[in-house]
Every structure is written in structure tokens, then in C-alpha cells.
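#struct-pred

JT: dropping the chains for the assembly here, can someone run the whole complex?
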Amino acid sequence: MLRFIGRRLVTLVPTLLAVLTLVFVLVRVVPGNPALILLGDQATPEAIARFYRETGLDQPIWHQYLSFLGQIARGDLGRSMINDRPVTSAIAEVLPYTLELSIAGVVVGVLLGVPLGVVAARSNGGWVDWLVRIVTLGGLSFPAFVSAIMMLLVFGLWLGWFPIISGGKPWSDPGGRLMSLALPAINLGLVMMAYVARVTRGGMLNTLPSDFIRTARAKGVPMRRIVWKHALRNVLLAVVTFTGLYFSVLIGNSVLTEIVFNRPGLGKLVVGALDRRDYTLLQGLVVTYAVLVVVVNTLTDLLYGLVDPRVKTG
Amino acid sequence: MSVLHIDDLRTSLTLNGRQHHAVREVNFRIEEGETVAVVGESGCGKSMLAMSIMGLLPSIAVVTDGHVVLEGKPIERESERQMEAIRGARIGMIFQEPMTALNPVLTVGEQIAEPLRDHLGLSRSEARRRAIALMERVRIPSAASRYDSYPHEFSGGMRQRVVIALAIACGPRLLIADEPTTALDVTVQRQILDLLDMLQDDGRMAMMLITHNLGIVAAHADRVVVMYGGDMVESAPVRALFRNPAHPYSRALLASLPRVDRDLSELASIPGRVPPLTRLPDGCRFIDRCPHAMKICQALPPRVPVADDAEHEVRCWLHVEGSGRDASAG
Ligand SMILES: Nc1ncnc2c1ncn2[C@@H]1O[C@H](COP(=O)(O)OP(=O)(O)OP(=O)(O)O)[C@@H](O)[C@H]1O
Ligand code: SF4
Ligand SMILES: [Mg+2]
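RK: done, full complex below.
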């Protein structure tokens, strides 16, 4: 297992390098001259030249590339073009909020989605199946920001169960922090729940007629354990794969959630950076997202190796 | 007292809203230590019969009549609880396809230990000890160290040994083997069959052996049940059947075998195939392929028993009223 992890971590390096290169190229081929955008189209040639010098954009492209990589290797993403703050610290400050929200969203999605999918498959075509279908269809087609606003209204304002402004609470007050996390996480997790329920239902319907399920029944294993252990263990492989793929979508979705719930996080930072054309901050954010996605994919692979015994020996 | 008594069992399948009998009027017994082979072409209802006994029929199938009597007591198949208590404890079953018969994400040891814990209430460590002993008993080399292996680390023959180990774990009185060696190559086939013989002798276990292979019947069975289109058409001791097959279908089976070990999935001496369930004739189900078909065969299914001794039963109009099976030969 350790060797498997080691191998997987080594392959992480070229993937990361490729992703960073892509970010580097993308940022440079985006139409629009950053100098003109930032300084305004009335900027003097001297001001533009100074801008280019300060940002290193006057250097040859390979030079820019190497110093870009070098900076990242040192954990330096440059300084904000608006307020000169180090991008790394701006991101580091809010990253935990986004991570905590995304992870909580995944937990909600999986913990609700898997059982829903299982009971739907068990009832296959029965009323429970239909009920789950309606719920998941709702989860998929209802715009997340609408459900967010409704949840805020109902549970935040009218019932007063949850704080309306989330985030801000320190972890030294775990109850308060979790309460402020609950609504955004549920909102974020509902869509994922719908997908996970579908993946699980389909997987169960494929797995239950398997020969090995028949073997388990022939040795007298109670149906409940056949479903929740023998079949579900196999279906979890698909759920893990899906969760890994979906995590990057989820980090993206968290932007909307953060804004509606007025939570600190990468989402608000992105909107601010876009709004003020903060070129370096934006680049830093893209790098952060890219690294997150690569790391999550690696974690997924490792997890897959844990749940599927056929993987690690290879 | 017979270990198993199949008493007029009928199983029907609902296809397009209509019921069709996949198993009809099957009557036989298996005694302690005895092996009864069930033979017949593909689609004759052999697996349906086995699954009716196990209570593991697909949802479209249901036993409509008759009884499965286990050690003198009819099984209450309506009670899923009772069926769970019987399966794996008093009846074990092994299947045709060893490559897919084991759960790929559970260790083989865990899969063998599970019925020991369920049925015998053993502790985890006790079940582990017993499971390793079982693995040794089915001749899995270095059993203790392979307890924690996964099925994909085993060959087909070894997987079938694992399936056998978990089927006999709780010392069942009856073992149902549905084509246990069809998917294996010839040398492994022989090893597995010899293993089954040995295990059976140890425990005086009764065995119902479903097979396509008359060579296996000759070498390993005491009696044979021949099925056609869901009907039991003949039942006899192995030697009697091979020497003196009474039913035209049994004769065809034997005639199609210049060599006894050939497979009978294709019946050479009689053209045609087993008709699908939806097109089974009302009378004798073999009528379309029978060289001796008479008027009465069309009207009514022949009844049993019609034979001169109780050991040798045949369901065919040719043998009614002592017309004698020799008269019809030819
Ligand atoms: N799930 C099912 N749906 C529809 N028909 C079925 C189903 N299972 C079995 N049958 C039909 O029931 C009949 C008996 O099938 P069964 O599987 O018992 O045959 P078998 O004698 O075991 O054949 P084989 O030697 O190929 O295993 C066949 O006509 C088959 O087509
Ligand atoms: S009953 Fe008639 S059709 Fe059927 S096997 Fe006998 S002779 Fe042939
Ligand atoms: Mg079969």
C-alpha cells in the first residue's frame, strides 16, 4: 500500500507541472491587455512600460515561465495588483472556509445520496423509487441559489434555527461554527446527493443480479446484509469515482453558495478579483483551484485503492 | 428417511402476463450419501428445479404446487426467515461459474467464515480457525496465509474450491451442484469432482448434481433424473438407465453419445431443440421431436409411474399398460 501511495504521489508532479503550464499559457492568451485594463486606456506609454517592468511582462516568455514556476515552488503567487497584498496570504486566509464548505457538502451529498440510492434500487419501480426519483429530479433541476435563498428565509429568518450570516465563527466555538456551516453545506450537498443517489441506484441494480450475490444468498446471508454489505461495497467503488470527479464541480459551485450565504471563501475572492481586474490575484486563484483539483483526484485514486482490493497489487 | 424428497413440484414463470410451467411434476428422492444426477439439454428446467428447492427463484417465477421435503419435513418456502436458516446450513449450493461466484471486494476467508458465524454462531476468531480448516479440507495450498486474499488472486479451479468450502462450511445434509465443472478445463474438472466425492463420503451428504456430461453421470452418480421441457421424463439407477433407457428422449441422449464423455448441449440424433417455455405443447412436451409420437401423446401428458419396478420410472405413453419398453425400440 505504501508503495502504491508513493507511486501515486510521484505521478502527481508531472500532472501538477502540466496544469501550471496550462494556467500560465491561458492567462497569457486571454484577450485584453492587462496594462490597459488596469491603468485605463488613457495610460501614458511610460506608465505602461513601468507596469510591464514591475510585473516582469517585459521579459522573454521562457523567462517569465521559469520565474512563474520558481515563485510557485516557493509558495509565492505574487502580490495583488490592487492593494499589493501577497496573493498567498489573501488566499490562505479564506481557503479553509471553502475547503470546509466543500467537504461538508460532499459529506451531506454522500451520506444522504447513498442510502437514498439503495432504498430506491430496493424498491425498483415501487413508490419509494418514484419518491426518490422526484426528490433527486428536484435536487438536479432546482437552481442552487433559489434553494439557498429559500433555506435562508425559512430556516434562518422565520424559524431562526440557523444563523443568517455564516462563517466568521472561530473553531474554538465548534457548535457555532457547525451551525453556520449547516445551511450552506446542505444547499451545496443537495445537488450532489441527487447525483450520488442516481449513481448508487444504478450500481445497485447492476450488482444485485450478480452471481456473487446469488452465492451469498445461497449461504443464507440475510437480505439486509446482502444489500448493505455485499452489494454496497461494490457500488461504493463507483460512488468514490464519482465523488472525486464531482469534487472539482463542487468547489466551483461553492462560489455561488458562498455569495448567497455571504460566507468568506475563495468564491468571494474570485468575484472581487474579476470585478477589479486583479490579474495576479486571479492567476493565483486559478492555480489554487487547479492544485486543489489535482490533489483531490490523487486522493480519490488512493481511496479507490483502499476500497478496491484489485487495484493495489498491480 | 430421504434427505430430500421432491414431491410433485411445479414451478411456473410469468411471461407477458401468462403463466408457463418451467418445472412440472417432478418426483424423486435423494438418500443419505447418494448422488442423483439431473440431466437434460439446455433449457430443460434443471436450474429452475434447483432454485425452487433453494427458494431463490427470480421474481417472475413461483412454486405453485408440491413440496420440497427436507429430512422428512416440508420446507415452508413462504417464510424467508426459515429459508435463510436452511440455505447454507442444511442445503449448500455451488454454481457453474467460479470466476464470478465470489464477491470481488471481500476476502475469501471472510466469505467462508460468514455462514459459520451466521448459522453456527461462532466468534470471529473461531470462525477464522474453522474457515482455514475448511480451506485445507478442499485442498487449497497454504490455506492460513491465503485467508486474507481476495478472489482475483485465485485461479478458476481454486475459486471453485472456495465456493465448495463455503457451501459445505456448516455441514449441510444436501449439496446442490449446478454444473459445477462446466466452466473448468478437463484436469481441474476431474479434481473438483473427486473432491466432491471425497467430501460427500466424509459427511454422508446427499448430492444433487446437475450436469450436461453423461461421462460425469456414469462416474459420479448413483441415480439419474432425466428432464425434458420441465418434466421429469425418466428416473432410474445409473446402470439401468445406461443399459436400458426407456424414454425416447433418454434413448436419444445416449444415442447421441458415441463417446460417453461428450457434452449433450447439442443432441445429434434428434433434430430440433427444447421448445421455449411459451411454446411448450400441452400433451407430451417431447412430441415434436419424438419418432414414436402417437395421437394420445398430443392430447394428454403421460402420467407416472409407468414402469415395472419402482426404481425405474418413466413418463411416456409407450410404456402405459405394460406395452413394454422393448416393443417400441427401433
Ligand atoms: N429469468 C428468466 N426469465 C425468463 N425465462 C427464464 C428465466 N430463467 C429461466 N427461464 C426459462 O426457463 C426454462 C428453464 O430454464 P433453466 O435455466 O432451468 O434451464 P437449464 O436446464 O438449467 O438449462 P442450462 O443447461 O442451459 O443451464 C428455459 O426455457 C428458460 O428459458
Ligand atoms: S409420450 Fe408419446 S411423444 Fe412423448 S415421448 Fe412417449 S411416445 Fe414420444
Ligand atoms: Mg442451468
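JT: nice. Residues 226 and 250 of chain B are 7 Å apart (CA to CA). The interface with chain A takes residues 54, 56, 80, 83-89, 92-93, 95, 97, 100-107, 111, 114-115, 118-119, 150, 152-153, 163, 166-167, 169 of chain B (CB under 8 Å).
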